[in-house]
Give the backbone structure.
Amino acid sequence: MISELRTIGVRTHVQRGAVLTLMRNTPRHIRHACLVAALLVTIATAAQPVHAAGGGQTKFQRISTQYIAALGDPGATSGSGAQSWGLWPLDPGPRGVELNSYTRLKDAGGVAPARWKFDSADWWLEEHGLIMEQPTFPLPPGKYMVTGHRKVTAVLTIHPADRNGDRRWELDKGATLYDVTHLACRSARYTPAAVGGSCSPANAPKTAFPVAPGGAMPQVEGCTKQDYAVLIVIGVGVEN
C-alpha cells in the first residue's frame, strides 16, 4: 500500500519503497493513477471522524486502503450475487507485472516479484495493462465503508450466504454501485473461452492501454472477459 492510517492518533505514512518501485518499473506515461487517487482519498479522509451506522449499532475502524472487485447493475442500491465479489487486501497495482514482462513471469514459474502466483486459466488486468494478482474470493460478510473518490461515501453491507449460497449486498443513503465505483481503476478477469483453450496475456492488445476512466477493458483473443467495478474501502464495521 502507498498509505496507512492508524485509528489512534490518526496519521498518514507513505511507504517510499512502493512508490520508488512503481516509478522504476512503470513507464512515465502510465503511472498508476488509481494508486495515486487512493492516496488522495486516504489523506482527504484522515481528519474526518468515523461515524456509526444503523443508529449507533455499528462503528467503523479505519484501515489501510483495500479494494473490492464487484459485479452488479451500476444503478442498483442492492442486489444478490455478492458471493462472486472479491477483495484485494493490498493494492494490486504496484504488485502487478507489465505485459511486456509476461515472458519473464512464465520463466519464473508464474511467481511474480511480489510473490503472488499467476494462474494461466484465471488472470486479471488493470487499466494500464498490468497483470494483477487475483482478489480473494468471496468477499467476507460484514460492513464496509466504500467510496469511488468522487462525491459519495457509503456503507456497503454484505450479508451472510443464504441456504442456496447467495449473498445479498446493499448500500446505505440511497447510493448506487456506480456512485461508489472508482472509475479510474479498471479491472477485468480473463478465462479461456473454450475448455482446454489458450487464454494468454501475450495476446492482450497493448495499444488498448491505458483504458479511459469508466471504459471497458479490452477483449483478448481466446479469452472470455468479465469487467469488474472497483470500490475503494476505507473502513470496516466493528460490531459492539
Remarks:
- The chain is about 10% helix and 30% strand.
- The chain has a mean pLDDT of 84.
- Residues 3-239 form one domain.
